[in-house]
Write a structure and sequence with these properties.
mainly alpha, two-stranded antiparallel sheet, about 270 residues, about 0% strand
């Protein structure tokens, strides 16, 4: 924004208006400098081999040539069951995460939990869940229960607890106090206040959270098989290890198709539920 000059009556010098003060300009310059320094440092730490960049288009063309034609005949034998298992992992993991996350979300809400110690402990659980990637959770449960769909389901569930619990707790904190205070004044129990005071207000947000998390879990469960946690990722890992690129293309096409179908299903469910 351009500066404007105005002269006030009795003023010896004109007053010049600036959008930012000197301190603000210095702070913005320091912020820009930090961002540029971070980008330069990240670029220096990432090892980029120029020779690999030069022949990348040739390598990509060769890889796509190996993937075509797609081995569609392999779908009933090696992809269909794994694809269904992926959907089962995502669905069961989402349901389990909701069962575990809702109580933690209630404890994390400030207006429901007067105890600061309990409140902070619940928030610690939510942060711990979100800070660990689903692949790390999968490796942990594979070490405990062995490879398979059970490890994948538990990985999806424990990864989703932080997401679902945090958003549910925030929705409760943003609920209007009027209906809650009216129910409390009548002597309603805690459960009645939750069911009739909070639930009608957070119901749209709750179902949005659950549907969104299921959509995310479908995508995450598709790659858990790369570490042995079941699902279509195991079929993809097998095809990659055996250099069966036509089957790799089939698995990638199946993953893309199920993601599109899940997106359509989520959109339709939101229209009918919310």
């Amino acid at each position: 924004m351009n500066a404007s000059t105005t002269t006030l009556p009795g003023a010896a010098y004109p007053r010049v208006w600036h959008r930012y003060t000197m301190g603000q300009r210095l702070l913005r310059f320091a912020l820009y400098l930090v961002v540029v320094a971070a980008i330069v440092q990240a670029t220096r730490s990432v090892e980029i081999i120029p020779e690999f960049l030069y022949d990348a288009p040739e390598q990509m063309a060769d890889l796509l040539g190996r993937m075509w034609p797609v081995d569609w005949a392999f779908y009933p034998e090696g992809v269909h069951a794994a694809l269904l298992e992926t959907l089962h992992i995502a669905t069961l993991g989402t349901i389990l995460s909701v069962v575990l996350a809702v109580p933690v979300g209630l404890l994390a809400a400030n207006n429901l939990t007067p105890s600061k110690l309990v409140n902070q402990f619940a928030r610690l659980i939510l942060v711990s869940s979100r800070s660990v990637n689903s692949l790390v959770w999968a490796l942990l449960f594979i070490a405990i229960f062995g490879p398979g769909a059970l490890a994948g389901t538990l990985a999806i569930a424990f990864r989703s607890i932080g997401f679902v619990g945090k958003l549910v707790g925030e929705a409760i904190e943003e609920a209007q106090r009027g209906p809650v205070e009216a129910l409390t004044a009548t002597g309603a129990s805690k459960s009645a206040v939750l069911w009739y005071g909070y639930w009608p207000q957070i119901r749209p947000a709750f179902w949005s959270i659950v549907l969104l998390r299921w959509d995310i879990n479908v995508r995450e469960s598709a790659v858990l098989g790369l570490v042995g946690a079941g699902g279509i990722g195991m079929a993809l890992d097998t095809a990659l290890n055996l250099f069966q690129w036509d089957r790799v293309a089939l698995v990638l096409a199946a993953i893309f198709a199920v993601v599109i179908v899940a997106e359509i299903a989520i959109t339709q469910a939101r229209k009918h539920i919310l």
